[in-house]
Design a protein that fits this description.
Length: about 550
């Protein structure tokens, strides 16, 4: 979050206020996170045609232990050496892993074997890969660290060859994410639910484990789109945390206002868009723009945007570089689609939130005059590291000063807030939806045949919808502004309990019993009046009745 940009013009009081605010907040406090360590011993695999790959290998320093993997050639041995360079000739290579631990399999005799097992001096894995193929073996949008795929780009190849000798030794990076499996809506009871983090990750670092997901910290490069996409807050950005980032933004806006600045606009950028944003801000006429640097532009979503507006920003701008991975761009666009109906319902101007290309034409909109915050009283809340709480705090603050006040905002499909609608005629109160709900939004009646719902907790993951055997549940995405109605559990369906015909104990509902009787009416075990009568008994009385019947028959 530390701003690395040069000083900007301060021709007006706004510019002077910005300079003071940026100076005072030059060093933002960031809570430490755990460290991910890579170890590279310089074992390099070069994949490509032998006549190209071998000269490249021979031109690299001896500190890199090179193996060339080439297609099998006529009358050539599978493994040979050219000086210190091992040459392996196998087909259908497959690569997985990450920097310091790349695994390579090749086809031998119709089955796949580890390449290192076929080479006398390869070690247990490869640390680095230079893939000269077109297309590359890995098609990730963002390639793993240590994997170079220059394709036909000569400049990219030269850059890779210059960097490879430096990629030996021990390297560290922050662990960018934190994951809470307890509130993950990915799945339950063998039913697939939310996959948004998997779909949004450009490094393919996230995989399904059935009910939960797993993030490979070595593949993760801190893009943050998984955090932005996560509806429940199970996936959190850890470096910097939401609390640290919004604490910085809150203080930045306050320092700007205290120094006499008006109508602050927060401009988020990452390293890729920094130069373009810096150039725009140096042109003058944009002295109310407050730049905030991020590790990656995809790491901020609707919680951050809404909090900035609640803190008194008239607008929030994201400068998105053309090189931003497509998966990240899609997720940012989806988040924008979720937020816009909320902003409209709050009476805020559409351009108070802008996602613009990080180029001269895209950033030109910043010079045309952006909305002034309508808030008479900016928020002062300290943002917790909990996504949904931040959103609620921000929206509640904006709603309190909105005019006119609407009851709700209808949201598009996929939005992480909403209602659950139940077909009471179809629902039997089996409570399968309650059992599978990952966030306790659906609850039973604590001994009563009731289905209760707390809208504030619902993440619209769809697990309840998929788990319902009667197809009685339907999602209804929306944002309910009434905080009391949003948080207070309400009853979606209820029945009078059906009591055991023998002991009087309540054990089911009439609808559930009717469904059970209908499904079993053709079963050979329930063809007598006596057997059908037992369905109306509780478990204990049913067993007793069966044994008493057997004793009488004896």
């Amino acid at each position: 979050m530390t701003e690395k940009m040069s000083e900007y013009p301060a021709a007006t009081a706004h510019g002077a206020a910005r300079a003071i605010a940026l100076t005072e907040r030059r060093r933002a406090e960031v809570t430490p996170t755990s460290i991910v360590t890579y170890l590279s011993r310089g074992r390099l695999l070069i994949v490509g045609a032998e006549e190209v790959a071998v000269p490249i290998a021979m031109g690299l320093p001896e500190s890199l232990h090179c193996v060339v993997l080439a297609p099998p050639g006529d009358a050539k041995p599978a493994v040979s050496e050219d000086g210190a360079i091992q040459i392996a000739r196998f087909g259908s290579p497959q690569i997985s892993g990450s920097f310091g631990q790349f695994d390579v399999s090749v086809e031998v005799g119709g089955e796949f074997r580890s390449l290192v097992s076929l080479l006398p001096r390869a070690g247990d894995c490869f640390d680095l890969v230079l893939d000269l193929g077109v297309p590359a073996l890995l098609a990730h949008e963002v390639l793993p660290v240590g994997y170079y795929a220059p394709g036909a780009d000569a400049e990219a190849l030269d850059a890779a060859l210059a960097e490879l000798p430096e990629m030996r030794g021990e390297f560290e990076k922050p662990k960018f994410f934190a994951y809470d499996a307890e509130i993950c809506a990915h799945g339950g009871s063998g039913i697939s639910g939310c996959t948004r983090c998997i779909d949004a990750c450009p490094t393919l670092a996230i995989t399904s484990l059935g009910n939960t997901v797993e993030v490979n910290p070595n593949l993760c490069q801190g893009g943050g789109s998984c955090v932005t996409a996560c509806p429940s807050g199970a996936m959190r950005y850890a470096y910097p945390s939401v609390s640290d980032l919004l604490g910085y933004v809150r203080t930045l806006i306050r320092a700007y206002r205290d120094a006499g600045g008006e109508n602050p606009c927060i401009v988020f950028h990452d390293e890729a868009s920094e130069a373009a944003v810096s150039g725009c801000l140096r042109n003058g006429g944009c002295e109310n723009l407050l730049p905030v640097g991020l590790e990656e532009i995809g790491s901020v979503g609707m919680d951050t945007w809404l909090a900035c507006l609640a803190y008194g920003a008239g607008s929030v701008v994201l400068a998105v570089d053309a090189g931003t991975p497509k998966r990240v761009q899609r997720e940012l666009s989806a988040q924008e689609g979720f937020v816009r109906p909320i902003l409209e319902a709050l009476g805020l101007q559409q351009d108070c939130l802008l996602l613009v290309p990080a180029d001269a034409s895209g950033l030109a909109v910043l010079e045309s005059g952006l909305p002034v915050s309508p808030l008479s009283r900016p928020a002062t809340f300290a943002a917790p590291d909990e996504k949904r709480t931040v959103i609620r705090l921000a929206v509640d603050h904006l709603f309190a000063q909105a005019s006119p006040q609407r009851k709700q905002a209808k949201l598009p499909a996929g939005a992480p807030f909403g209602d659950i609608r139940v077909d009471r005629d179809a629902c039997t109160l089996c409570m399968g939806c309650v059992d599978i709900c990952p966030v306790n939004a659906l609850r039973d009646g604590a001994g009563l045949p009731q289905l209760n719902f707390a809208e504030a907790s619902c993440v619209q993951c769809g697990l309840c919808e998929k788990a319902c055997p009667e197809d009685a549940i339907q999602k209804a995405p929306r944002y309910l502004f009434d905080s009391e109605a949003r948080n207070k559990p309400r009853t979606l369906n209820e029945e009078q309990p059906f009591c055991c015909i023998t002991c009087g104990k309540p054990f089911a509902t009439r609808s559930m019993l009717d469904v059970m009787q209908k499904k079993l009416e053709g079963h050979w075990m329930f063809q007598t009046d006596e057997s059908r009568r037992r369905l109306q008994m509780c478990e204990n009385c049913r067993v007793k009745d069966m044994f008493s019947g057997e004793a009488g028959n004896a």
